[in-house]
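Here comes just one.
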Amino acid sequence: MSVSVKTFDTAAEAAQVLSNDRAARFMGGGTWIMRAVNEGNQSFSSVLLARDPVLRQVQVQGDRVVIGAGVTMAQILGHGELAFLHRAAKSVGGPAIRNMATVGGNLFAWHPYGDLATALLALDATVTLASGNQQQALADLLRDREREPRPVVLSVTLTRPQQGAFRFRKVSRVKPKGISLLTIAANLPQASERISGARIAYGSMADTPVRVPAVEQALEGKTLDEAGIAQAVAAATNGIEPPTDAIASSWYRKEVAPVHLKRLLLEAAS
């Protein structure tokens, strides 16, 4: 089956077409869509592109950061004011993939992918949808992303974390660019040397990246030392039932999650 390509001047125009055509897919960098095309996927018959410059912009105003959905991992790595995201962006594939893979595409990556989405979830990011410039919490987008009609993301907005507060760890069986067995992102703001407003997110521990409320609550008001994080580590997989796949079993993911959470929490701030 042939696949047609349609190009639009704005993301809003592409979103309008997508909302009325279940056989269409919006393409950012193409790492997922072109793979599907090459594998003969027949669930869609047209690919939608947008020239919208907003998709490729990075705007930093004080602590407010807006990243266009078409910004690539390589662009993030080349942007000094996005240094807190460099480790997460670098975890996405090799150089060739990072030159293509986009922020927006990563939000729709299926398990066990979506490493950057995990980082953005821990940063309490919101998304702006191309249709009507609607604002939505990233957590809600991840929860509902398979519903029809599928949205087109215009940009992601977040607040720059405190210096040294954001941490990211990807666990893989193959280095340096293997598929994720477990990804952990943590935003650990502190007041008077005690954690205030912790945000913890896991990747590859559910169908989409998820927040871990049990760990967040256990960290509130604690110090980042062995004694302070003990309850959080004990609660590492509370409410989490990881999937079993070719990378690891659910049992194994639950066994190693507390180990890597502890290492991340005790990691020296950078």
Remarks:
- The chain has a mean pLDDT of 94.
- Residues 72 and 102 are 4 Å apart (CA to CA).
- The chain has eleven helices and 14 strands.
